[in-house]
Write a structure and sequence with these properties.
The complex is a heterodimer of chains A (about 270) and B (about 300). With about 270 residues, chain A is an alpha/beta fold. Helix content of chain A is about 25%, strand content about 20%. Chain A has one domain: Glutaconate Coenzyme A-transferase (3-Layer(aba) Sandwich). Chain A contains 8 helices and 15 strands. Chain A is globular. Chain B has one domain: Glutaconate Coenzyme A-transferase. Classes of the chains: A alpha/beta (about 270), B alpha/beta (about 300).
């Protein structure tokens, strides 16, 4: 193994954490930003046969610039398949063919429930957010769900104000009550401080690794639930030179990933 | 019989106050020329729907033409939350729009059910979420959870939707309305075919013979269409594959304008009320930002290989 000496920014590390959850051959439904970068890192490193789709109707696009939305013009030329929302969300996702879904949330709780609908009261909102879009079906129907969030007590929550996208709802057995398979659901929350993985039994997110420069104490302090810590808790492995090369030379030469620094991903 | 007319004629004849309107597009091919005309004609009390709404729906809400919105999502994409959408729901400016919220799986399926003439459709999303705890103007009829009669598991049913009128922007259509698209479809096909009447806005009108050279591209047949409007640049600031790119500069302009009520009104005065139609809008765009900027948006040509349908 070569010693890693490269400087990197937090969003790059977070994107790599996402990439490492993707296996070769996985079908990944992606949004823009982190999800697309992560899936591409995976594709250009350990998972060359991973394939991406976008809810707007696209499968296996070959964009010449980073897509700024899931309906971006650059997703059209070179894709293997272009159809409709019913094709991707219905035929592929609801049909059970999507391995990994990748979501971000304005508010995420310990059971991986995500709120993208409203902060405060639904009828008289303090802050009205966009709504579900594709998040709810992706969260329910992808076999494994990766969640990106900012690590503070506002974005992480003991219980979200509104469950737009169910994770494990109220904990063990909750998904089964709704006829949802128990072995699907959130896998990790990747934040700007840590990777938190969901416990197979309690369905609660616990601390698996802390990012270089962040401490366990700081993470516990900024997590609003009684955060359990893995016996083998460790530092998150930094991006490898190869991962950084892929991000900077292939996926994002324009360095659009820098926008996440302004959004607090530091 | 030709159905070709101006956008002013199409909107005035076929979109009425209080109508339920499906408006297609997914950044790809939003029918912006039609949206501006709806605002210009000061339509009122519309119910609007589409999966994944963006700046166009934000503008309709800000302009006060919308009473109800069967929604899944509304944002300005890279430019963040929809300002008019937020002002409407948080502060009641210009008034509070009534929302019936679904998802990007259930809503397209509801339009599909409408197009197929079936009364409802089972979907596998929304279960366990708070989307099942809220309802608005659909009341008890937003959804039903039943026991799946075949295996006893919980099954969620959502109702079919049949809008009064569907509006889509396509790359090409013939003068009777056979409408062809390529590229990201969003919910255009099911949404238009679910609608009782369809207004087709297009980049270019082509002959019936051209349509027949590649009939697999047709998403709406002429007998479903009441109006055909040729509107080049009609999806701007969205894009049309093979014609022009998305206009991020203009998207940013809209975001900055819509940050305030006054800025939004000035935007409408300049780009909607201040022009008669899409031709004047395009002229204004070129005058204001220069031909080079306009030309820069135009797509390069990289043709597909022709296919043969012959036997």
């Amino acid at each position: 193994m070569t010693e890693i000496t490269s400087e990197y920014i937090k969003p790059e590390l977070m994107a790599c954490c996402g990439a490492r959850e993707i296996k070769d051959g996985d079908i990944v439904i992606v949004g823009t930003g982190f999800p697309a970068v992560s899936a591409n890192i995976a594709k250009y490193t350990h998972a060359p046969n991973a394939k991406m789709m976008q809810e707007s109707g696209v499968y296996d696009a070959n964009p010449r610039r980073p897509a700024l939305s899931v309906g971006d013009p650059c997703l059209n030329p070179g894709a293997a398949f272009i159809g409709s929302l019913v094709d991707v969300m219905g035929m592929f996702l609801q049909g059970g063919w999507v391995d990994v879904g990748f979501l971000s949330g304005s508010q995420v709780d310990k059971f991986g429930n995500i709120n993208t609908t409203v902060i405060g009261d639904y009828i008289n909102p303090k802050s009205r957010l966009p709504g579900s879009g594709g998040a709810n079906p992706i969260g329910l129907l992808a076999k494994k769900v990766l969640i990106i969030a900012l690590h503070d007590k506002r974005r992480l929550s003991d219980k979200v104000d509104f469950i737009t996208t169910p994770g494990y709802i109220d904990g063990p057995g909750s998904r089964a009550k709704w006829g949802l398979p128990e072995d699907c659901g959130p896998e990790v929350i990747i934040t700007n401080k840590a990777v938190m993985r969901f416990d197979k039994h309690t369905k609660e997110a616990y601390l698996e690794s802390y990012h270089p420069g962040n401490t366990i104490e700081e993470i516990v302090e900024n997590t609003p639930w009684d955060l359990k810590i893995a016996d083998d808790v460790h530092e998150t492995p930094p991006p490898t030179d190869e991962e950084l090369r892929v991000i900077r030379e292939i996926i994002d030469p324009m360095r659009m990933i820098n926008i996440y620094l302004d959004r607090g991903y530091i | 019989m030709s159905k070709v007319m101006t956008m002013r004629e199409a909107i005035s004849q076929f979109v009425h106050d209080g109508d339920f309107v499906f408006i297609g597009g997914y950044i790809c091919r939003p029918p912006f020329a039609a949206i501006h005309e709806i605002i210009r004609q000061k339509k009122r009390n519309l119910t609007i729907t589409r999966s994944n709404a963006a700046d166009d729906f934000d503008m309709l809400i800000g302009a006060g033409v919308v009473k109800r919105f069967i929604s899944t999502f509304l944002s300005l994409g890279v430019y963040g939350l929809g300002r008019c959408f937020r002002r409407s729901l948080e502060k009641g400016i210009p008034h509070k729009v009534e929302l019936e919220e679904y998802t990007n799986l259930s809503l397209p399926m509801m339009l599909m059910a409408g197009a197929l003439g079936i009364p409802f459709v089972p979907v596998k999303d929304m279960l366990g979420s708070d989307l099942l705890k809220i309802s608005s103007f659909f009341g008890e009829k937003k959804y039903k959870v039943i026991e799946n009669p075949f295996d006893g598991t919980p099954a969620l049913l959502v109702p079919a939707l049949n809008p009064d009128v569907g509006i889509i922007h396509v790359q090409q259509a013939d003068e009777n309305g056979n409408a062809q698209v390529w590229g990201i479809e969003g919910d255009c096909k099911w949404g238009a075919n679910a609608s009782k009447k369809v207004i087709v806005s297009c980049e270019r009108i082509v002959s019936r013979e051209i349509i027949g050279k590649d009939p697999s591209r047709t998403i709406v047949p002429d007998f479903r269409v009441v109006a055909v409007v040729q509107e080049p640049f009609g999806a701007h600031p969205g894009y049309a594959p093979g014609f022009y790119d998305v206009d991020l500069m203009f998207g940013s302009l809209y975001q900055r304008a819509s940050n305030t009520v006054e800025g939004f009104q000035e935007f409408l005065d300049e780009w909607v009320f201040g022009v008669q139609d899409r031709t004047e809008y395009t002229q204004r765009y070129i005058e204001k930002f220069g031909y080079a900027q306009f030309k820069n948006l135009m797509a390069e040509f990289d043709y597909s290989y022709p296919v043969s349908y012959s036997y």
